[in-house]
Amino acid sequence: MSEVAERVPVRRLLALAVPALGVLAAEPLYVLVDTAVVGHLGAVPLAGLALGGTLFTVVSSQLTFLSYGTTARAARLHGAGRRSDAVAEGIQASWLGAGVGLVILLLAQSLADPVVRLMTGGGQLADAATGWLRIALLGAPMVLISLAGHGWMRGVQDTVRPLRYVLAGNGVSLVLCPVLVYPVGWGVEGSAVANVVGQTVAAGLFVRALLTERAIAFRPDTAMMRAQLSLGRDLILRTLAFQACFLSATSVAARTGADTAAAHQVVWQLWSFLALVLDSLAIAAQSLVGAALGREAARTARAIGRQVSWYGLGFGVLLGVLFTVLFPVLPSAFTSDSSVLAEIPHAWWFFVALQPVAGVVFALDGVLLGAGDAAYLRTATMLSAAIGYLPLIWLALVFDWGLSGIWTGLSLFMLGRLLTLLSRARSGRWAVVGATRTPSDSAAH
């Protein structure tokens, strides 16, 4: 009997996407509050927090495979009716996160001071950034354990508990941060301590969730961890391509001039925020597609891919219209500098026009991540970066194209990703069924 493709009810999709959006938004919102607290200490502590926080994020963001890769593997097992095996993926990802986090902690403690001084040239700013970073690095294992927790819970289609855990951890940090910074008198280092305590609370809740599942074994399984690292390698390379592009754009904007850099920062932060909004739909797609493939429902997985892509397109169109309407008033909420306001339109209309493209791209990212098609995503992202984004960014510096050149590069990057993802989605070769997907599956398809 032929398989009947199932359509996912909108309510089910939103039940996964809305809590995921809460998780994605919680960290940036906490960072804003943390910045506001430290900002009243003066320019040097605030700059130290900014630099230290950026370096910590660069390190931790390379290991998001503990979340995305674990979701892909756990969702297939969950769809196949093997919940205990899906939880076992979370256990091994947590061991892996703890181990990698300890290695990062030990290495980065010795490298923190020379790296910061290389970037700043020394002085009070370097001291503030190094002090914050060395304390914050104590939370690295906790952050990676939490990433693993997000991964397996999304895989079993539970996005509500992770939201509660993140809110609990951030809530503790929010209370502690102003207390440790001011009455206790630890200054910017008090902010780092508050971060570590909050991260420890969240990681502890994720570990407790694993313990209550009563999975088969909690001891490390090196074979399973090697398989997770194999998938993680492709996702790490993909993340590196993103960072090379985004850091290059920021660097070129800064070299072009302060007004250009400030205008780019305003529009880029809006782009980053909307990326989080659209990414919540991708997270729902990951879980649903992985589960469908796990129960060997390839037609259903492909139908979910089409459905989510149309939703992403519609959502992107709405966002484009919204920010077209907001253009006369929104930029002024970020700055009153007339020269910066004059530069913003050079990026704004690219930002608006790209929203429908981003809606489809992020949705298809989720579909292919859910299918475990990381090797294709790696190659597509790196090619789009090498052919589109990076050349245009640096040509914009050479020929003084300003923000128009930088955002033309981003547009080519997004269009390259759109074409490669649509081609892969239409081929259907990503829809490899089974409770697991091996590297040979990717090579064969």
From TrEMBL:
Belongs to the multi antimicrobial extrusion (MATE) (TC 2.A.66.1) family. It is found in: Cell membrane. InterPro entries: DinF-like, MATE_fam, MdtK-like. The keyword Mitochondrion does not apply. CDD domains: MATE_DinF_like (cd13136). Its main location: membrane. Keywords: Cell membrane, Membrane, Transmembrane, Transmembrane helix, Transport. The chain crosses the membrane at residues 49-69, 90-112, 132-153, 165-186, 192-211, 235-254, 266-289, 310-334, 346-368, 380-399, 405-422. It is a multi-pass membrane protein. The keyword Transmembrane applies. It comes from the Bacteria. One of its GO terms (cellular component) is plasma membrane. This is Putative efflux protein, MATE family. One of its GO terms (molecular function) is antiporter activity. The lineage of its organism: Bacteria, Bacillati, Actinomycetota, Actinomycetes, Actinopolysporales.
